[in-house]
Design goal:
The protein is α/β, with parallel strands linked by helices. Helices cover about 20% and strands about 35% of the residues. The strands form three sheets. Strands 1, 2, 3, 4, 5, 6, 7 and 8 form an eight-stranded antiparallel sheet that branches. A seven-stranded mixed sheet has the order 12-11-10-9-13-14-17, with helices on both faces. Strands 15-16 form a two-stranded antiparallel sheet.
Length: about 325
């Protein structure tokens, strides 16, 4: 077990698959067990890749016996950079630590993850990055998630529930069959003026939800930023009572961040970048951040080491996020 020196102390170790559950079309929840895991918080992430030692050993055995490699072994033998995934849940047991991530099958790495079975081995580096800050003074929290921005909000909802916060989750997806949540008895609001206990994963922690879909197949028809704005217009929560947390597509996060900054609402954004190393060594996952000490008024910070959580008012949004 090798310890990686980082601002968040991380371990690189071999984990085993406990479960790999289909949540909806294209989304899965992967549960891993690792021997140990340092203290971590919602917003932090893990870096995953095939456990190459295990794959190579399996290949030798199969070559000697003349057997064929299965899909997981073939994928494991191929070169692959680690992929970053927000932690969706974490629990400590006598047998180790369980870490949950949620992923959408879109490419080579996630196809490899889709093929993982119970007891398969996987290399886990984490915890990495910095978590969402929890306000002691403010009693309310809004969690605004779009698409694969959902996972850190699930763990955050648990943390906020333990802190006694009045939490509302705003969850957006392209369509109902791409929403990685379980619906329960209460219906989802179609006008976004009222939050209900319609999403089991949030309701389990006492959080009400508003759901939106781009095609109108469930809940509010439109993007989740508009749903949040509609809710706020009909529920005049004071700026000094609420903290907003957001994760998802960059255009959505910019909408939420700009909305909050304009109204003096505290907002924290969980950014996403391609992270080759996850520890700040490769310097590739840059985010423009305001810095009055710099000649141009901003500087690059690293998403993996300085983030992924940044205060909304500090982010210098790039033109690609507009429109």
């Amino acid at each position: 077990m090798t310890q990686i020196q980082n601002r968040s102390t991380a371990l690189i170790q071999t984990g085993s698959v406990v479960a790999n559950q289909s949540l909806c079309r294209e989304h899965y929840r992967l549960t891993l067990r690792v021997p140990a895991f340092h203290q971590a918080g919602a917003g932090q992430f893990v870096h995953l890749c095939p456990d190459l030692g295990t794959a190579e050993n399996a290949a030798v055995v199969n070559d000697e016996t003349g057997g064929a490699l299965n899909n997981w072994q073939r994928e494991s033998l191929a070169p692959m950079l680690r992929r970053a995934f927000s932690i969706a849940a974490l629990s400590r047991t006598a047998g180790g630590v369980k870490v949950d991530v949620i992923y959408r099958v879109v490419g080579k790495a996630t196809r490899w993850m889709e093929a993982l079975r119970v007891e398969d081995r996987i290399s886990v580096l984490g915890p990495l990055g910095h978590p969402f800050p929890i306000s002691v003074e403010k009693p309310k929290a809004w969690l605004v998630a779009g698409g694969v921005g959902l996972p850190p909000m699930l763990w955050l909802a648990e943390t906020l529930g333990q802190s006694g916060k009045n939490t509302i989750a705003f969850c957006g997806a392209q369509s109902a069959d791409l929403l990685a949540l379980s619906r329960r008895g209460e219906p989802a609001s179609t006008d976004a003026t009222t939050a209900t206990l319609c999403a089991k994963e949030f309701a389990d922690f006492g959080a009400r939800s508003i759901i939106s879909t781009d095609d109108g197949s469930l809940g509010f028809p439109g993007h989740i930023g508009s749903a949040m704005q509609t809710y706020h217009e009909h529920n005049a929560d004071l700026a000094d009572e609420v903290v907003v947390y957001t994760c998802g597509p960059e255009r959505m996060m910019r909408f939420v961040a700009d909305y909050c900054v304009a109204r003096n609402i505290e907002c924290h954004v969980c950014m996403e970048r391609a992270m080759a190393c996850g520890t700040g060594l490769c310097q590739s996952c840059v985010v423009p951040i305001a810095d009055a000490s710099e000649p141009d008024g901003w500087r690059y910070r690293l998403c993996c080491k300085d983030g992924p959580v940044f205060a909304a008012e500090t982010i210098v949004w790039e033109p690609a996020a507009v429109g």
